[in-house]
Design brief:
This protein has 301 residues and is an alpha/beta fold. It contains ten helices and ten strands. It is 43% helix and 25% strand.
C-alpha cells in the first residue's frame, strides 16, 4: 500500500463529521466535485469503500467508521497540540474553560472553582450546557473539563471518558421551618405535597426506594430537573422537597427551611469529566486534585 495521504484523510474526516458533502465543501472552500475526488483517491489508496450513498446522503461503511476513529485521534491530537502551544508559549497566564451541566448545584460549582479565584496565574470561563453539548465540547477541545452529576460511560470504541468523583452531597427531606413532623417518617407525612427532582436521576431513584421501603405514596405536585428551580420551589411553595441541604443552606440558616430527615444512602455525586490527552493543562489537574482532597477530608461540599 502506498504511503497514506493525510491531506486526503483530513478531507475524509471533515466530510464524515459534516451533515452533508455540500456543507463540508463550503467549510473547506473547495468544490463538491474536487472534494469527492479527494475522497475517491483515499478509497483507492486504501482499497476500501469508506462511504455508500443512500439517496442524497453519504453513509459511512463499517470500515469507514473504523477509519474515522483513527482520523479522529490523529486530527484531535493535532488540534490539541496547537492549543497547548498557544496556551503555554504566548503568556504566563493560562486560561481554562470549564463546562457545567446546566442543572448542577450552584453551590457545588462555586466551591469547585474557588481555588481559581485565588490564583494569579490562571483565568477561566464557565460554559453552562446540556450533557450532549458538554461531551461534544470535550471531544472538539472547546472545553478542558466538564462538571456533571453523573458518570459518563464510553458509548463507542473511539471515545473514552475519564470520570473522577470530586464531591458527594447527602440528600434529605427539606420543608418549611417549624413544620417538621414530630413522628418518624412516614407518620405525619400523610397529607404532605412534594416537589422532587425529575425522573432518571439518582436522587429521585433514592427517594422512590425510600418511600417504597416505608410503603408510602408521595403526593407529587411538581417534578423539576433544574436544581436552582428546585431550590426556589422548596423555598416558596410551602411543600416538601428532596435535595441536598447544602443547596438551600442559606434558607436553612435564615430559618425559612428546615432539614427534616436524611434519606439513608442517598447522595448526589459530582464528577469532573475529561478525555485522555497527551497534554492536560496543569491548572486542570491541580483543580481536580484540590477537589478530591477536599472530598476525602469531609465527604461533602
Amino acid at each position: 500500500m502506498s504511503r497514506l495521504n493525510y491531506h486526503h484523510l483530513y478531507y475524509f474526516w471533515r466530510v464524515a463529521k459534516s451533515p452533508s458533502l455540500t456543507e463540508a465543501a463550503e467549510t473547506l472552500h473547495i468544490s463538491q466535485s474536487a472534494l469527492s475526488a479527494q475522497i475517491k483517491q483515499l478509497e483507492q489508496s486504501l482499497d476500501v469503500a469508506l462511504f455508500i450513498r443512500q439517496g442524497r446522503k453519504l453513509v459511512l461503511t463499517d470500515v469507514g467508521r473504523r477509519v474515522l476513529a483513527y482520523a479522529q485521534d490523529i486530527f484531535n491530537t493535532g488540534e490539541e497540540l496547537e492549543k497547548f502551544i498557544q496556551k503555554d508559549s504566548a503568556t504566563q497566564v493560562q486560561h481554562i474553560t470549564i463546562g457545567v451541566q446546566s442543572n448542577l448545584s450552584r453551590n457545588f460549582i462555586e466551591s469547585f472553582i474557588a481555588p481559581l479565584l485565588k490564583s494569579e496565574n490562571v483565568d477561566f470561563s464557565l460554559a453552562s450546557r446540556g450533557m450532549t453539548d458538554l461531551l461534544s465540547g470535550l471531544v472538539n477541545h472547546e472545553l478542558d473539563l466538564a462538571l456533571t452529576n453523573r458518570a459518563i460511560l464510553s458509548e463507542s470504541h473511539d471515545t473514552t471518558w475519564r470520570n473522577q468523583l470530586v464531591a458527594r452531597q447527602a440528600v434529605a427531606i427539606v420543608g418549611p421551618y417549624g413544620e417538621k413532623p414530630e413522628t418518624p417518617f412516614p407518620q405525619g407525612y400523610e397529607d404532605k405535597k412534594w416537589v422532587v427532582p425529575g425522573r432518571n436521576t439518582d436522587i429521585r431513584s433514592s427517594f422512590e426506594s425510600f418511600c417504597a421501603t416505608h410503603q408510602y405514596q408521595p403526593d407529587i405536585k411538581a417534578e423539576v430537573d433544574d436544581m436552582a428551580m428546585l431550590r426556589l420551589l422548596a423555598r416558596d411553595s410551602g411543600y416538601l422537597s428532596v435535595l441536598p441541604p447544602v443547596v438551600v443552606k442559606d434558607e436553612i440558616q435564615s430559618k425559612v427551611l428546615q432539614d427534616y430527615e436524611s434519606i439513608p444512602q442517598a447522595f448526589e455525586n459530582f464528577y469532573a469529566i475529561t478525555m485522555p490527552r497527551k497534554f492536560t493543562s496543569q491548572p486542570v489537574l491541580d483543580l481536580i486534585k484540590i477537589a478530591i482532597h477536599q472530598y476525602s477530608v469531609d465527604h461533602s461540599i
